[in-house]
Amino acid sequence: MFVLVNLKAYPCDPVEIADAARDVSDDYGVDIAVAPQTAHLSRVADTGVETWGQHVSPVEHGSHTGSTLAEAVTDAGATGTMINHSECRQKLADIDAGLDAAERVGLDTTVCANNPEQVGAVAALSPDAVAVEPPELIGTGTPVSKADPDIVTDAVAAAEAVDEDVSVYCGAGISTGEDLVAARNLGAEGVLLASGVAKADDPKAALENLVEPL
Ligand SMILES: O=C[C@H](O)COP(=O)(O)O
């Protein structure tokens, strides 16, 4: 299972969480990546943890003030990026161009989607992975695997029907090891989570609790 920890814009210490994620990943043999604010990418990557961008813009070098250039994301040490997070929605054409930008520099890609129908649509763009996240469950602590497990199994089927090489992750409300095991049992190959770690009093303990049952 791949565990992608999105720090969003939470008031957490990205380096403390990156250090914890690196150590827990090493200790438990689970692939854990951290996606901090773009301005924190270098500091997070310097810890040695797998580092992801929260977004890349659908642009090349040029007059694109305020953009998140894929080349700058890799220069900062990231090896992957999310695109189309529910809190950073993109038009389909921009998701496609964002994937082109990520591919140009060799970033791994996860495209987020609200539901299984959207999973099928974005799987057609051949990202490395899609992450299904019902927006209404984000930040609630109620995992999609409990609230509506069919969303995960339907997302897996939708991606498989389009492109068997696209992995499916699930997210929203995931905070415990039990949630990770449930996601795996529903066919997900990874999880995307945020508040369960970024808002935890002890992020390292939260990460250990997540991966221990795997
Ligand atoms: O990027 C992470 C997802 O939006 C899930 O957030 P959450 O774990 O706080 O529900």
From TrEMBL:
Substrate binds at residues 6-8, 138, 173, 194-195. SUPFAM superfamilies: Triosephosphate isomerase (TIM) (SSF51351). InterPro entries: Aldolase_TIM, TIM_sf, Triosephosphate_isomerase, Triosephosphate_isomerase_arc, Triosephosphate_isomerase_AS. The active site is at residues 85, 133. The keyword Isomerase applies. GO terms for cellular component: cytoplasm. Homotetramer; dimer of dimers. This is Triosephosphate isomerase. The lineage of its organism: Archaea, Methanobacteriati, Methanobacteriota, Stenosarchaea group, Halobacteria.
